[in-house]
Each structure stands twice: as structure tokens, then as C-alpha cells.
Amino acid sequence: MSCLGGRARSWAYGRRLTDPTCFSTYEVFKEELRQAFEPPQNEFRSRAEFLDLQQGKHDVHAYAQRARYLVSDIVTNPIDEATKVVTFMKGLKDGPVKTYLFREYPSTLESAITLAMQEEFSLRQAKLHVNVPRPMPRPMAKPSGGPEPMDLSSATAAGSQQRRGPTNVRCFRSGNNGHYARECTAPVQAAKGRRDDTGYRHGQSKN
């Protein structure tokens, strides 16, 4: 009573003076105070607001807290549990949370609130996981100027093959295998003394 003020304080102390045992318990005191000063039809307004409750732009937690408050304000003729559940589920905005609750169909308002909040939390966690930036692949190191290295193995092999020349030809000047006469480096004098495959010396006519 010491926390009251204004008309409520005057009313409470006035009742106490006329009847010291009027407030036998705290619950009796609270109920009489409510009946004396609560605006008329307040419970009716809470019932109407709850039955038309919509989530709108609020998150599930704020929507659930509002539903709990309105339900707790209806004490004279409480709403049955099935109506509470359907009203809460119907007021959710269209999306995964509402779809999940209609699939599970909880039996009590508190069960519906718990499932809705859990589903919203799971969706937020999944969204955060998807939006985590992935590490970019490291770029390949490029040479800092200058010519790029070449694979000289095939070129060297080809050059060696060309220098060796074909092995199935025979020089008619020196009589050696492996090169043509235009590539022969043997002295001409030495080449004249050699015989070819016919048995005649180069530079002499047949008799």
C-alpha cells in the first residue's frame, strides 16, 4: 500500500480504516484494487487484440511476448488452449517458421512459441553460415620481367638429330656413311684415292 499514490492510495487507506481485515491476503488486495481502478472492458479489449494479433515486422520473440502478455490479461474467461495455438500460428507472417509450425501443430501455446523461436534461430544460423566469405585462391606467381624459361629438351634432341644426319646414306667422295657429299669435310686428295662401291677410283674413266 505504501507504493500506491493518488486516488489508489486514498482508496486503500480508507478501506483499511473502515475495516482493518478487509485485505486478508495480497491476492485479495490486488483483485479489489484491479476491480476498483482497472478501465472497464479491459479484458474484452485484450481478448479482441489477441484474436487479431499479427507478427508484422516484429521478430518471433517480440511477437511471442505480446501474445503472452495479452493471454495473461484474460483471467475472467480464459481462452482455451487450442484457440491460443491457432491464433498464434495464424498471426505469424508467411515463411519457413509458419510452415514448420503448421507441419508440427503443437498442442499448447508455449510449445508453439518454443518451436517458432527455435526455428527462427536455426534459420538465422544457416543464413550466417551461407554469408561467410570464402577464402580466395592464391594467385599464381608470375615472373618479374625477363624472358620466360623454355623447355629446351625437345629442341636439343632435334638439333642433335639434325647434326648427326641420316645414318642410311653414304658419301660418294669419302665413302663414309652418315652424310652427303655436300657435307663432307674430308680433303679432296684423300677422297680421290677411295673407291666407291663399283670398284673404280673417283676421277678415272672406265676402260
TrEMBL record:
<feature type="region of interest" description="Disordered">
    <location>
        <begin position="133"/>
        <end position="207"/>
    </location>
</feature>
<feature type="domain" description="Retrotransposon gag">
    <location>
        <begin position="2"/>
        <end position="94"/>
    </location>
</feature>
<feature type="compositionally biased region" description="Polar residues">
    <location>
        <begin position="153"/>
        <end position="165"/>
    </location>
</feature>
<dbReference type="Pfam" id="PF03732">
    <property type="entry name" value="Retrotrans_gag"/>
</dbReference>
<dbReference type="InterPro" id="IPR005162">
    <property type="entry name" value="Retrotrans_gag_dom"/>
</dbReference>
<dbReference type="InterPro" id="IPR032567">
    <property type="entry name" value="RTL1-rel"/>
</dbReference>
<protein>
    <recommendedName>
        <fullName>Retrotransposon gag domain-containing protein</fullName>
    </recommendedName>
</protein>
